[in-house]
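Researcher: I'd like a structural prediction for the single chain below. Treat it as a standalone chain; there are no partners to consider.
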Amino acid sequence: MRIAYLEDDAESATTVNEWLREAGYDVKWFASGVECARVVASERYDACLFDWVVEDLAGIEVMARLRIKLRQAMPPVLFVTGLDSEQDVVEALNAGADDYLVKPLSRPILLARLQAVLRRRGVNSGLPQIQDFGRLVVDHARRQVSLDGRVVSMTERETDLALHFFQNIGRLLTRDHLIKVVWALSADVNTRTVNVHVSALRRKIGITPEFGWRLVSVYGHGYRLEKLKE
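Model: Treating it as a single chain, here is the predicted structure.
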């Protein structure tokens, strides 16, 4: 079993790596969230252990980025973090995490929770591969959005942004979050870049009130995609 382990504290990582390897797992340790997201998107892993607080790209953003890229092939994610508030746990689980452990870690509990997550790895994630909204169809497996039966031509970044919005209908996504998830902290990206891409999406795929959608700009925060009641 291959495990991707994201943890930027070397001392903690050394201990958990030892536990996992002694239990028979093949572990790849990442101290960088950006590197973890890049590698896991291109290689097969059976599960991910993610710390939340990582300096360059937080674990929750790494998970969100991988969900865009991998969709149904997304490995299960177990958070191992020092964030222990009820709000943090709920946010991680709602964002797609399979389990959540708070540091300091217990070796037996970590291994038992990981085994439980792996037992469920063949279970459908519950994320639909195709979202059919009538004239608008979002195919996550093919990474395509169709409007009136025709595939909309979009750049890779526009596609990532569109898929992430449709994975999070009704949720406020901050501009900072979108930059981390969609652009992975590219140096030349700023909030204006996000605004330009959002405007392009509104125009290209018709997510406007006229067609039953509203992509709301929340001043000082970010955007929320809303499906209007018919």
